[in-house]
């Protein structure tokens, strides 16, 4: 199992995403595609799990992300967004496998992300991410999670 870059298949990936995610990423893709990479686990050519790695500030960042995440970009951390597992491939640990393969690509690379669901917080913490910030807006709560590589330059 390996991660493959699939930027050329972005439409197929976007069509797998929930509507609210599509509404965020689809309109801005042309503006950010040169600083973003879609990585996927493929099975017989079909996307089983995929996500986007951003290396520069996103066009659509919340105030919470700007306040807490910009310094991580400045330190060279990449942002993980839109991690998605195909519905027919759920419960196969593919999200964890995707993260593990990503971390193995460059053992010195740090990553960060934001989440809005408590269940996802547990998932990322299980996958070696630490929650380092929580938004003050309790109605639209967000957490910022960071993966610190063991080896850092």
UniProtKB/TrEMBL annotation:
Protein name stated in the entry: N-acetyltransferase domain-containing protein
Species per Swiss-Prot/TrEMBL record: Sediminicola arcticus
Organism classification: Bacteria, Pseudomonadati, Bacteroidota, Flavobacteriia, Flavobacteriales
């Amino acid at each position: 199992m390996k991660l493959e870059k699939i930027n050329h298949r972005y439409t197929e990936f976007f069509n797998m995403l929930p509507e609210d995610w599509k509404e965020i990423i689809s309109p801005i893709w042309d503006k950010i595609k040169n600083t973003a990479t879609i990585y996927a686990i493929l099975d017989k050519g079909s996307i089983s799990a995929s996500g986007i790695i951003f290396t520069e500030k996103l066009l659509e960042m919340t105030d919470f992300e700007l306040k807490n995440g910009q310094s991580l970009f400045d330190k060279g951390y990449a942002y993980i967004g839109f991690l998605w597992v195909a519905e027919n491939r759920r419960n196969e640990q593919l999200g964890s496998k995707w993260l593990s393969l990503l971390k193995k690509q460059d053992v010195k690379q740090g990553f960060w992300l934001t989440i809005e669901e408590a269940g996802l917080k547990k998932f990322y913490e299980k996958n070696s991410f630490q929650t380092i910030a929580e938004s003050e807006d309790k109605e639209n709560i967000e957490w910022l999670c960071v993966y610190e590589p063991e080896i850092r330059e």
